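**Protein of interest**
===
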Amino acid sequence: MSTTSEGKWDWNISAKTSFWSWGIDEIWSYRHLLFSLVRRDFLLNYQQTILGPLWILFQPLLTLVTYVLVFGKLVRLDIGNVPPTLFYFSGIVLWNFFSDSFGGTSNTFRDNAHIFSKVYFPRFIMPVSVISTHFLRFVVQLLLFIFLIAYYVLFRGFAVSYNWWLLAFPFSIIFIGIIGLGLGLLFSVLTAKYRDIGNLVGVAIRLLMFVTPVIYPLATVPERVRWIVQINPLTPLFELFRLSLLGEGIVSVSQLLYSVLFMVVVFFGAILVFNKQGDKLIDVV
C-alpha cells in the first residue's frame, strides 16, 4: 500500500476478497511488471535452443507441411478454391494462438503459487502476461501468413477480391484471444483446486479442434451435422478470419452475435470468479 502527498491511501491490501478487487489504475501502475514478465517468458522459451526465436516460425511451418501432406494429398479434403498452403496455415496460426492462450492461462495458480504467496500484485497481471507473450508470437506468424498470401497473389495466380470484410479480421483475432483468456481464467481456478483438471484441459483443447474449422471449411460440413460445429463459438470467428483475408468463408450476423455474447459472458464471468477465488486458492496450491 502507499499514500499520496495528502496522506490518502492509493489502495489498501487486506484479506478480504471481492468479485472486482482491482481497477484499471492499479493494473496500469504495475505495467512495468507486466512488461518484465512478457520479456522473461519470451527469453525462457528460446534460451538454450538451437533455432532460438526461429521456433516461432518453424513449429507452424512443420505443422503446415504435415497438414498439406495428410489432409491435402492423402485424405484430399475439399477446401474450396483457396490454395492448401494458405488455407491450412490460416487455421494453424489462429488455432495456435487460441490453444496457447487457453492452455497457458489455465495453469496460472499452479505455476505461480510460489510468487503469489510471497508478494502482492494484481493476480490478473500474470494471465495477461501469458496471453501477451502468445500474441507476440502470433503477430510474427501472421506476418508470415500475409507474406504467403502476397506470394500466391503475385506469383501463383491466386485471385482474391477484398471488400469491407477485410476490416473485420482484427476483431476475429481479438475475440478469439479474449475467449481463450476467459476460459483460461475459469480453468485456472479449477486446476488449482483439482490438479487432474489440468490433464483434461489438454484433452479438451485437442478435441475442440475437431469441431472448429481449422482443417476444413464450414461449407464442406454436411447440413445434418453442421449444427455441431456451429455450436462452437469459435467457428464464426475462424470463418470470419478466412473470409476477410482469403475471400472464402460462411459468416452470418446471428452467428457472430452468438460468439460475441459468449465472449462477453465468459470473460466477465471468469474475471469475477478469478478475483473472488484468487487469494483463497493460495493456501490450496
